[in-house]
Write a structure and sequence with these properties.
The protein is built from 18 helices and two strands. With 479 residues, the chain is mostly helical. Among the domains are: 37-91 and 122-167 and 319-478, Up-down Bundle (Na+/H+ antiporter like fold); 273-311. It has a two-stranded antiparallel ribbon with strand order 1-2. The longest helix is centred in the C-terminal third of the chain and has 38 residues, at 429-466.
Amino acid sequence: MPLIPVYTWNKTILQFESRRRKFSKQPWAQGVILLACVIVAMLLANLPWTRDIYFHFLETGLSIQVDTPDGNGFIFPAGMTVEKFINDILMVVFFFTVGLEIKREIVCGELSTPKKAVMPVIAALGGVLVPALIYALVNHGTAAASGWGIPTATDIAFAIGILSVLGDKVPVSLKVFLTALAIADDLMAILVVALFYGGQINFLLLGIALVLVLAIIFMNKMGEKRPWFYLVPAIVVWILFYYSGIHATMSGVVMAFLIPMKPRYSKAYYFRKRKAYRTLINEYETLHESGGFPNGPQRHILRQLSKTSRGCIGLSYQLEHALAPWVNFLIMPVFALANAGVRISDPSYFNVFSYSPELGSVSMGIFLGLLLGKPIGITLASFLAVKTKVAAMPDKATWRMLLAVACLGGIGFTMSIFVDTLSFGDQAEHVTLMLRDMGKVAVLMGSLCAGILGSVLVLLSHKKAAAGGTPDTPATQSN
């Protein structure tokens, strides 16, 4: 067999890298990877030769035994397993990135002014309250009652991914509306987790964390913008949150809001340094090296210029840009692999309308909350906001198209599964596991149906408008 020339291998690698980068830049890429991870996780959890290995791996302990001179050693972090490492540590990075995104939108984005923020925020509030109400009505007084927060979240990756596939069939204003709504929805989901799904609170540790946060705020006000001065306190805050009873992922959100957005160097400083570096580069032009430009001193100058350039970008923006690929293509897929694997021990898990007087119906509450509660809540809240002139409809949008986009808000997935992993902890262990598994299946089915329904409604609405049908009331007439 003839050897393949080296250049052929290099060409293949370059082509693969080019296609990988092109794929990763697609808005729907994260959704595709997450969906693939869900399928893999379900297979691993149910195939007879992989399911025991899968669950055993997730339950593997990762705590460290620390010995002390007095012989009273301790374990750190207490109760840490592979699954908890993913949900309590890796997800901190996810929530940190979400916090940075929310902060950016509040400071200078779609939520930066009352006029911009009011419509998606009101719509998001409706999209949280109505699904929670539907779930509560279905499961009031049953063992499943505490899972009301599961159907309240929107997964921005899947929702925006579907909108990108639909292309120009959806007005740009509605794409911006759904993005801002998902961001506001994330903030509300974070508050739900922090307030209702923590453990028994240790106020001493929480107080220490608060003092440390105040110290970080003071450091921020004093103008400190170096990353290490925030990384070390962030680790300490995580430890304090982990042992205080508030879910550890909330430390990521808290720290995100403390990261400075103001750059280290000003615009005038940058131009002054660039002029000085340019002069130095010209001065070293006479130093000839075999490699040509840049020579040794010039390379050093260019590195200094690059360092100065990075300092002109706020630390918050730098971290968001640096972490986004890791979150989208590593942390979230790993989360899906660890949490979407549900052992289907009973086919009734797929019967979302089954009901028990004692257990209630976590499946029905989640499924109806995502499929019906989300679009009803978002559309109704938007309608009331527009009719009372508190807010204005997105430009060139119709009520029919807004309803279709609101259906995409029923794609819960990431945050819904995350809340599901925190729910039902006050039940017997076997009941808790069963309710959580049923909840995950309902989240997947509800999100799938919401995505299909929203896509079909978008296509039908666009087709009717293109065929010259009578459109709904346009935004310009709704105000």
